[in-house]
Write a structure and sequence with these properties.
This protein is α/β, with parallel strands linked by helices. The protein has four domains: about 100 residues, Signal recognition particle alu RNA binding heterodimer, srp9/1 (2-Layer Sandwich); about 180 residues, Rossmann fold (3-Layer(aba) Sandwich), CATH 3.40.50; about 70 residues, Helicase, Ruva Protein, domain 3; about 190 residues, Methane Monooxygenase Hydroxylase, Chain G, domain 1 (Up-down Bundle). The strands form three sheets. Strands 6-8-9-10-7-11 form a six-stranded mixed β-sheet. It has a five-stranded mixed β-sheet with strand order 1-4-3-2-5, with helices on one face. A three-stranded antiparallel β-sheet has the order 13-12-14. About 5% of the residues have low confidence.
Length: about 600
């Protein structure tokens, strides 16, 4: 960037100098009268000449006419050795010599101006055309970056936590790269490709870098979207160039992120399959397992949508290994937190095991953000180390957003929000098989005026129909509390209603939890978003079935709302006490809620 600025400054400086010199030379020369040499000598003797400039080929000067006005003159010199003596005898005030301006000198001066013009033309025009031509020719070059471990910190499996099974699968790939002869002597072949798939933030890119770091081989990193351009054939050319670079550095690892950008199902659009993206995919298929064998190159790709990847990519011989990267379990979350806490000064109360229990469902990226946010909060509070309050606050910031104490509500609205949130909390407290309430607040966070924070005690992989029904009742507890206390409902329940409807629909359509529908799944399979395939798809069920689904969804939601209303009516005094305390304090912890509920029951 600095070189570019220096070049621009140089160009503008030369241009300015050129213009100034041109203007100076374009100045109108003074009118000079050409006189014979004899007349010049006569004027010298008579004392009329006041200035003389002598050149071997020309004499110029000034003289005064009879009226006393100065006039310019010029004359061609004659061989006259006594000219200087005559000038001295006539007491000419100023006479001097000029440099020799022969035809050679004039030619050199003119050539200099021409050269300066061509120099500026070359800098301003030709260089720009050359750069543009190079850029045009570089369209077909791969934009993959080769990661140099000498300049960057080497990533190993020690930097990856929370996915031990996935690391074991990839460890075999590392062994292939380190000592391929060990497997080849038994007839084994190195896997061509490894597809990492899972939710965003689970560590797919980090695992790929760890493979290259463990094996100590060159690592080429590219995004699938970089292959596709508006020009036909560019993507396929870039794929070829990427594999050519990897062949020269083999054994090597190529990592392509977001593979679904070029690896989606072919022949999905109305216009047929001859488009740039599909040409790129075809070239990738050839490079993975085509006529020419690529020895010593392993392609690792990552995607969040394995269901849309073309089947030709997933067959053996191309992506031989398909490794699922799950969300971390309890022990994995604790390990991830400890990895990211290495560079953070933790206080004695920074209990990472407790934080791991309170972050069920968090991805590795979320957990890294928890540690980073807690460090920023501690620094903002001028603390010496990160403590448990900072970690808990960072969890709430990630789940619900930052606090907005500037959102000042009226007492009437504040009271409605207090009853709404206490309705959620009380129903969650009274119903079994629901996540414990960790905190209730009427301090705004994100888009919410208040929130009820429930944190599970342990990881769960199965959910019963009763648990889902109770979860629906908790979601509708806030709206039920508003209706019971104020005989009116507000717009604050919109998000609760959307979530409740989504849960109920999933129970009916996907999970077979409706007696009228029965144990069948009516969910449409995930398909391409292209227009051609969407047109060819038929609905998964009839209009009559759709009506039954709507009726069942409404029934499930109504039953959950009735359950929440019944619980709140039976415990109206507890609800009132909770709302009063929340209105007063603005925040209630899980222990505060337990004390109020248990005191009322006793």
């Amino acid at each position: 960037m600095e070189n570019k600025n220096v070049k621009q400054l140089l160009v503008w400086g030369l241009s300015f100098l050129f213009i100034v010199m041109v203007f100076q030379n374009l100045k109108a020369p003074p009118i000079e009268k050409e006189i014979p040499y004899s007349e010049f000598k006569a004027k010298v003797r008579s004392g009329e000449v006041t200035q003389v400039r002598v050149r071997p080929d020309l004499i110029r000067g000034e003289y005064k006419d009879p009226g006393g006005q100065a006039r310019k003159f010029k004359t061609l010199p004659m061989p006259d050795l006594k000219l200087v003596e005559d000038l001295e005898l006539s007491k000419v005030p100023l006479f001097q010599g000029d440099p020799d301006r022969s035809w050679v000198t004039s030619l050199l001066v003119n050539l200099g101006w021409i050269g300066l013009f061509f120099l500026l033309w070359w800098i301003l025009v030709v260089r720009q055309v050359q750069v543009g031509g190079k850029q045009a020719m570089s369209f077909g070059r791969s934009r993959a970056k080769m990661v140099d471990d000498k300049k960057t910190k080497k990533t190993t499996f020690a930097d990856v936590a929370g996915c031990d099974e996935s690391k074991e699968e990839l460890q075999e790939v590392v062994e292939f790269l380190k000592s391929p002869e060990r497997f080849q002597k038994l007839g084994g072949k190195m896997p061509r490709g490894v597809l990492l798939f899972g939710a965003p933030g689970t560590g797919k890119t980090l695992l790929a870098r760890a493979v290259a770091g463990e094996a100590g081989v060159p690592f080429f990193m590219a995004s699938a979207s970089e292959f596709v351009e508006m020009f036909v054939g560019v993507g396929a050319s870039r794929v070829r160039d990427l594999f050519d670079q990897a062949k020269k550095a083999a054994p090597a690892v190529i990592f392509v992120d977001e593979l679904d950008a070029v690896g989606r199902h072919r022949f999905a659009g109305i216009g047929g399959g001859h488009d740039e993206r599909e040409q790129t995919l075809n070239q990738l298929l050839i490079e993975l397992d085509g006529f020419e064998q690529n020895q010593g190159i392993i392609l690792i790709a990552a995607t969040n949508r394995p269901d849309v990847i073309d089947p030709a990519l997933l067959r053996p011989g191309r992506f031989d290994r398909q490794i699922f990267i799950p969300l971390p379990h309890l022990k994995g979350r604790e390990d991830i937190l400890r990895v990211h806490a290495r560079i953070v000064k933790m206080g004695p109360d920074g209990d990472l095991a407790l934080i791991a229990r309170r972050t069920a469902g968090f991805s590795g990226a979320d957990l890294a953000n928890v540690i980073n946010e807690s460090a920023l909060l501690a620094a903002r509070r001028n603390k010496e180390a990160v403590g448990l309050p900072d970690l808990e606050e960072s969890i709430e910031r990630i789940m619900a957003g930052p606090q907005k104490r500037s959102n000042l509500m009226s007492d009437a609205e504040k009271k409605v929000v207090a009853y709404h949130e206490c309705g959620h909390a009380l129903v969650a407290k009274l119903l079994p098989h629901t996540d414990p309430v960790h905190k209730v607040s009427i301090v705004s966070r994100g888009h919410a005026l208040g929130y009820t924070l429930q944190l599970p005690k342990e990881d769960k992989y199965l959910t019963t129909r009763t648990e889902l029904a109770n979860r629906l009742a908790v979601l509708l507890g806030g709206r039920s509390a508003e209706d019971m206390v104020f005989a009116e409902v507000t717009s604050g329940s919109s998000d609760d209603l959307a979530k409740a409807t989504s849960f109920a629909t999933k129970m009916v359509v996907e999970l077979g939890m409706s007696e009228r529908i029965g144990p069948i799944s009516l969910k449409k399979p995930d398909q391409e978003v292209f227009l051609g395939r969407d047109i060819s798809q038929k609905g998964g069920y009839s209009e009559r079935t759709a009506e039954i689904i709507d009726e069942e969804v409404k029934r499930i939601v109504d039953e959950a709302a009735a359950k929440a209303r019944e619980l709140l009516h039976k415990n109206a005094k507890i609800l009132e006490e909770l709302a009063a305390k929340l209105f007063e304090r603005e925040v209630l912890s899980g222990e505060d809620i337990d004390a109020i509920v248990q005191g009322a029951v006793a």
